[in-house]
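ok new one. same drill as before - structure tokens go in, u give me an amino acid for every spot. 229 of them this time. try not to just spam alanines like last time pls lmao
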């Protein structure tokens, strides 16, 4: 892959999270969770094992720096991280330009996270699945009272991006409240993580029309969508 073909090098410098002489960090275009970062070499080199020792050191230095910045930027602060890279097509690598994933994790973003990166092989991740986890806490319920003290999206954003199913109930005194979350909710519903089968949920989401009226798309006659005021 040439420098002109690498999608990572097409990201403007102004959008980098951080950098050093040999590497830089950018946000993943298809994030697994909010704040998902890729740490990439400036030189186009296919895998970790093809990089020089200096490049490997530069990559790991930015992993630490990216984590530090994400801890300070994300709200709520991540409860943990997955860090790793794919090497070769057999491992799942799709872009032949070495990059390290730095993925923020949150309590409750999956039912039982034990096994972590071992889940790259389905069914092999959690070898403790037969044991009942003794220290895993259930996801905490959060009440968001609104801007500016407790914005709604901060409470649900990290869960929506990694969810397989979403039930969301919200009420707004001002229609501007819907503006704050509708784009992110619809983007999450369209994401691959939600799944094609769940995209029909879009039809039941409240949305704001151009005339300022609040309407809902619901099931109509024959199972078709119908606008209800």
């Amino acid at each position: 892959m040439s420098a002109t073909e690498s999608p990572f090098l097409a990201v403007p410098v102004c959008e980098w999270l951080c950098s050093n002489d040999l590497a830089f960090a950018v946000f993943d275009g298809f994030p697994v969770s909010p704040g998902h970062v890729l740490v990439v070499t400036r030189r186009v080199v296919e895998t970790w094992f093809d990089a020089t020792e200096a490049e490997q050191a530069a990559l790991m230095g930015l992993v630490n720096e990216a984590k530090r910045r994400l801890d300070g930027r994300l709200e709520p602060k991540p409860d943990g991280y997955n860090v790793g890279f794919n090497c070769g097509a057999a491992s799942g690598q799709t872009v032949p330009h070495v990059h390290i994933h730095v993925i923020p994790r949150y309590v409750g973003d999956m039912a039982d996270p034990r096994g972590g990166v071992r889940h790259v092989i389905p069914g092999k991740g959690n070898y403790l699945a037969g044991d009942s986890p003794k220290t895993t806490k259930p996801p905490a319920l959060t009440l968001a009272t609104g801007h500016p003290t407790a914005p709604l999206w901060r409470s649900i954003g990290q869960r929506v991006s990694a969810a397989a199913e979403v039930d969301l109930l919200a009420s707004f005194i001002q229609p501007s409240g819907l503006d704050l979350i509708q784009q992110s909710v619809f983007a999450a519903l369209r994401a691959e993580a939600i799944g094609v089968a769940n995209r029909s949920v879009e039809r039941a989401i409240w949305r704001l029309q151009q005339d300022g009226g609040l309407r809902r798309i619901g099931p109509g006659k024959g199972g078709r969508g119908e606008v209800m005021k």
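The helical segments are 53-73, 152-160, 176-190. and btw The beta strands are 18-19, 23-27, 37-41, 80-84, 99-105, 206-208, 214-219, 225-228.
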